Structures are given as structure tokens and as C-alpha cells.
Amino acid sequence: MCGAASGYGWQVDAIIDALRLAGGVIGLGTAAFGMVIFVTGRAPRRTVKAWRSLREAGLWSVFIGSALVLLALSGFLLEWDLTWIGLTTLAAAMVVVALAVRFRPRR
């Protein structure tokens, strides 16, 4: 890592951890937004206009949010030398993104 060679390794690691944590929190928020769409059956006007149905909007939000959480989790697992678990989690994140492509917003 370039940060370790210059003596700033701990700062680079702290920034990467903060970004990974932020991605996980954003993923939780996005997944929660999708669940709210499912439970209430309502969504903001922009969301309604962007998708063909509220079901697709909710599924896309849940899938993308879950993928972000899995991606952040896999990063932490790989950092903690839990290689196989981290790679499996990363593969699961890619599968969830592939599912989300089916429910992407219309153009």
C-alpha cells in the first residue's frame, strides 16, 4: 500500500475503514427505504415516476442496500484475515447486484 511506504499507513487505513462504514450505513438506509415502500405502499413522487411500479422500486432499493451492506462487511472480513468468509460475502454481494439489475429504474 502506498500509504504504508510513506508513513501514513494508519491514516489511509482509517480513511478506508470510515468509507467502508459509511457505505454500510448508506446501504442500511437504502434497504430501509425499500422496506418502507413495501410496508406503506407509498413512495415519494420522484420514486413513483422513475419506476414502473412501487414493487420494483422497493425491491431495487432493498437489493442495492443489501449489496452495499454485504460489500462493506466483506471488506471488514477480508481485513480481519477471514478470507473465505469475506470472499463468500463478496460473491453474495455480486449476486444481489445482479438481482437488482432486473428491477432498475426505467429510462
What is this structure, in a nutshell?
By secondary structure, the chain is an all-alpha fold. The protein has one domain (23-101).
User: How much is the radius of gyration in Å?
Assistant: 17 Å
Element-by-element helix/strand order: HHHHH
Total number of domains: 1
Percentage of residues assigned to helices: over 70%
- Count the DSSP helices: 5
Number of strands: 0
Description:
With 107 residues, this protein is mainly alpha-helical. The chain has one domain (23-101). The protein is built from five helices and no strands. Helix 2 runs antiparallel to helix 4. The longest helix has 32 residues, at 9-40. The mean pLDDT is 90.
What descriptors fit this protein?
elongated; mainly alpha; 82% helix; 107 residues
Task: Please specify the SSE layout and strand pairing.
Elements: H1 2-6, H2 9-40, H3 45-50, H4 54-79, H5 83-101
